[in-house]
Every structure is written in structure tokens, then in C-alpha cells.
Amino acid sequence: MDAVLAVLGLVLPVTCVCCGAPDRACCASCRAGIDARPRRRRLVAGVRLDAAFAYEGPVRVLVLELKLRGRVDLAPVLAPRFGALVAAALADAPGALLVRVPPSRAGARRRGFDPVDLLLRRSRAPLRARARSLTRRRPPRPRGAVGPGAETAGTVGAHGTVGAHGQKGRSALERVEATVGTLRAHGVAGRDVVVVDDVVTTGVTMAEAVRAVRAAGGRVVRCVALAEVPE
Ligand SMILES: [Zn+2]
After folding, report:
1. Which of 7, 10, 34, 45 places its Cα 20 to 30 Å from the Cα of 207?
2. Structure pTM?
3. Is 59 part of any domain?
């Protein structure tokens, strides 16, 4: 295999995305370092969330390269540990359904591929075939939202910069309000469910997934993520 890669390297020079060493998309030394990083665990909506990695350092680089630059060749570095956590969750809850958080519409359009789907496909266990997706619906209008022409209502500054679009400009409460009700689960009534997503940041989206499953009569027994942003 190395010989094959060496030959391919002559045709398509590759450097490690983490350290710049020639030869591999992720070099052996960086890969060993990544494999040595601790797993993460926290609670989301009262449910245990297992994350294969903390979203930092070389893991963050790999995830960004995969998700934003379409480096699907990096999936094999990340997928095995994610797949192992999903498989372990399913082993702990025999008969549980695997339900995934869908990518945002904008992300799916931009990328043209689905990172969670790819990771499940590249993991050792045949997990992808079992995964079903929550569906996304248009977010309900936040309470107290005002229509155009009502800028004077609130204490927004002269340039109206408060309330900028996107999660970063929002308070925690605004993020929750904008997310509740955006996901819907189907076919989970009376079933145990393992929820999966790629990156958990605030946990608001994962909590919404848990809410959606519960609202549809399912019981979330565990959440699994590829990476988790340390709080
Ligand atoms: Zn490297």
C-alpha cells in the first residue's frame, strides 16, 4: 500500500494538512497525535453526549478541511473513532434507531456532500444504512420579532448592527429561540434513539434534535458527535 501511495505521490504531490510534511494528506506522526487525543463527554438536554474528539488543534484543521474545502480524503482519519462511538452506543441499546441531525440547507448546497453521511460510510461498522435523518423545517418567527419598518422598536443602535444574522452575533437565549421547533422526527414513537451529528458547538442544535425525538414519542439514549467544542 505504501508503495502505491508513493507512486501516487509522484503524480499528485500531497502535504499533511496539519504540519505541511510531504507525502500524505495527514502524516503518520500527526495521525498518531490525533489518535492519542482524549474523547469528550458532556450532557445535552440531560442525555450523555460522546464526542470522538475535542474540536481544537489538528482536529479542527481536519474538520474544516473536510467540511469547507471538500477534502473527503481526510475522512478516514476521523471516521473510525466516530464510528466506534456510534457502534458502542448502539451496542448499549440494542434495537435503537440511529437518527442524524441534517446539515443546514446552506451547508449542504455549498458542499455538495454530507459530512456525517460520509463519516458513517467510512467507519468500519455498516452504520450508514441504518441512519435516518431528522427533517428541517422553516424556523418559526422568534417571539417579539418585528417586521420591516419597525426599526425604532427596540434599543438597536443607529446602524442596526445588533441582531446580526448567524449564531455568533446572537445571545444564548436568542440562539435557543431561533432553534426550537426547527427539527422534526418521524417513525421514532416508542423507540430508543441514538442521535448523531458532526460538530457540537453550543449544544443548542443537538438539544433541539433531542426535543424533536421526544416530541415524536422516542427516547434518546445517547448523542454522538465527531467533535465537541470545549466549553
Ligand atoms: Zn503532519
Report:
1. 34
2. 0.80
3. yes
